[in-house]
Structures are given as structure tokens and as C-alpha cells.
Design goal:
Blueprint: E1 13-14, E2 18-24, E3 27-32, H1 44-58, E4 61-66, H2 78-92, E5 97-102, H3 104-115, E6 120-126, H4 134-148, H5 152-161, H6 167-186, H7 190-200, E7 215-220, H8 228-237, E8 241-246, H9 260-268
Parallel strand pairs: 3-4, 3-5, 5-6, 6-7, 7-8
Antiparallel strand pairs: 1-2, 2-4
Helix pairs in contact: 2-3, 4-5, 4-7, 5-6
Length: 317
């Protein structure tokens, strides 16, 4: 009989109130998810979806799926969100760990690696780049406006359409979004609007050179939120960056490409890495009652960045 799959274990929250699920065992791998309607532990179908994505890595790693903390300040930037992760990571681990971020989580992961390079050993960026593409940014803001104006079906149809890789899949996904929109946004919180605005103002091109962690950027050639050029610029701007660009893949299909899991595993667990290599030494997790870093227990001060304001900023407060 095949060995049973490891089951996710929800233990509440990380330091700072960040919801998580943990799966597998071994060297830690931190996974930052894409946009979610709220910042709560995933349940039901969403939990099963997230678990399936993590299972290939949980065979050799203890994967930590950690969402943004609930109750973000309405004016929070990507730097502020990254600072939340840095604070929690300093409490939870004794040193740098491997980090993988997908979509919006990839934007946060890039900010984290630039602002707090001592926390990131290796970095995997999936379906994200140093900024959103023009169509991706316009769509995100339309989704925000539609939600705030009481059009959840239109909002989710627009969001789902962008996940497709061509006209046919985009029409199909838009239809699914229209059907499920009211249910999806029934569980939305103000944190969704805050995160959309933070990503709208996210631009890290001039700081890519500050990312010291070896980085793998994985993107789909037909991603509607980003262009191949944005993926290429991101990988090229990071000193130890490399790119895996999958032809014919859209935003949703990147992680289902048959090359994805092997590309990521060979990057985070290179076969030529030796046990006495300091860069390859596993990072210990702190016992729950161990004091965290820094000694004063305060989160790091995030870098500042300008962020254009949406016409609906006041409505979302």
C-alpha cells in the first residue's frame, strides 16, 4: 500500500497573529500564498486546494503555509506586510530559511528578501515579478472597485478571467467567477482591499540588486497579470537570479506544468550541496517557548515606498 499523505495541521496562528497550516517534516520551507478574500486559515475546498499544492514539497520539507495577518492597517504597503513576516520569522526560526511566494505572495516575498535579506536563504517567486503588468494592475483596481460598489459577481468574473492562458479558458473561468462571486466575496474582509492597494503600489525594480538570496523566478509565458519581459527583468535584476518561463502557461496553470515541482525541488535542494556547506545547513525551528529575535521583540522597521491612493481608499477604512 502507498504511504499515507501527510495531513495539514492547523495550530492557530504564528507570532503576530498570522494564520498558518503546517504539513510534512524536515527543513522548513515558508510558503506565502496568493490573494485571498480574508486572512483566516483556509477551510473546505480552499484548504484542500492549498494542501494539494504543498504536498510535493512536504515529502522532504516541513512546509509552512502562512497568510498575511488579519486587521492590516488600511494604508499598509508591501513593506509593512513584509515586516509582519520578518517579525514572525525571527520569533519562529534560528536563522534564514527557504521562502516560496506565489502571485501576491511572490510580491511580498520579493519585498521580504530586499528588506530583510538575513531571513531568506533561497527564494522562489511563482507567477510574480517586480511589479504588476499594466493589465494586471488595472484589473486588480477594477476588482476592488466592483467589490466596494456591491458587484461581487462582476469582480470575481474579472479576477478569474485573468487566470486563463487564452480566450477560451478566460471565458470559461470568467463564467465560473460569475457563478461563485457572491459566495467568494461574502467572506471577504477589508484586508482584501488593503492587499490589492498595496500590490498596486508595489514596484521593486530599483532594489532587485539588494536581494542576496539565490532566486528562482517561475512564470507562464501567457500570464495575463505579468508579461514575459517582467519575469525576465526580475530574474536578471537579482544577482543570483534565474528564470523558468513555461510556454503556453497562464497565471493559474504555471504550478500545474509538469516541470514546476522538479524545477523548484532541484533549486531548493541542489544535488551537489554538501552537508558541511554553511549555506546548505538546515535552520532549526525555535521551541514554542523560546525567546525570539530581535531581543526587544519589536518588528523590524519596514522600508518606505510611495503608493498611489485609490479613489475608494476612504470607503475601505
Amino acid at each position: 500500500m502507498p504511504a499515507p499523505s501527510p495531513l495539514p495541521r492547523i495550530h492557530g496562528t504564528w507570532p503576530g497573529g498570522m494564520p498558518y497550516l503546517s504539513i510534512g517534516s524536515g527543513t522548513p520551507l515558508l510558503f506565502l500564498p496568493g490573494l485571498t478574500p480574508n486572512h483566516e486559515p483556509p477551510t473546505g475546498a480552499d484548504r484542500r486546494f492549498q494542501t494539494r499544492m504543498l504536498l510535493p514539497f512536504a515529502a522532504t520539507r516541513r512546509v509552512w503555509w502562512v497568510n498575511r495577518r488579519p486587521g492590516l492597517d488600511p494604508d499598509a504597503t508591501m513593506a509593512d506586510i513584509a515586516a509582519d513576516y520578518s517579525f514572525a520569522m525571527r520569533q519562529r526560526f534560528n536563522g534564514p530559511i527557504d521562502v516560496m511566494g506565489q502571485s501576491t505572495g511572490g510580491s511580498v516575498a520579493l519585498q521580504l528578501a530586499a528588506d530583510h535579506p538575513d531571513l531568506v536563504k533561497r527564494l522562489v517567486i511563482v507567477s510574480a515579478a517586480h511589479r504588476l503588468g499594466t493589465e494586471g494592475r488595472d484589473t486588480a483596481l477594477r476588482v476592488s472597485d466592483d467589490v466596494l460598489d456591491g458587484r461581487p459577481r462582476t469582480a470575481y468574473a474579472e479576477l478569474m478571467r485573468m487566470l486563463g492562458s487564452g480566450a477560451g479558458s478566460q471565458r470559461m473561468l470568467a463564467g465560473i467567477g460569475w457563478l461563485l462571486g457572491k459566495n467568494y466575496f461574502a467572506h471577504a474582509s477589508a484586508d482584501l482591499m488593503t492587499t490589492i492597494r498595496a500590490e498596486d503600489g508595489f514596484e521593486l525594480y530599483s532594489r532587485l540588486g539588494e536581494i542576496t538570496a539565490p532566486t528562482l523566478v517561475v512564470g507562464g509565458e501567457r500570464d495575463a497579470f505579468y508579461s514575459p519581459e517582467l519575469f525576465q527583468q526580475t530574474a536578471a535584476g537579482i544577482p543570483h537570479g534565474r528564470l523558468a518561463l513555461y510556454p503556453g502557461r497562464g497565471h493559474l496553470a504555471t504550478t500545474s506544468d509538469p516541470r514546476f515541482v522538479s524545477d523548484v525541488l532541484s533549486f531548493i535542494d541542489p544535488p551537489d550541496e554538501t552537508a558541511d556547506d554553511p549555506a546548505g545547513a538546515p535552520t532549526a525551528e525555535r521551541p514554542p517557548d523560546a525567546p525570539g529575535r530581535p531581543a526587544d521583540g519589536r518588528p523590524d522597521q519596514p522600508s518606505t515606498s510611495a503608493r498611489p491612493r485609490s479613489g475608494h481608499d476612504d470607503l475601505a477604512r
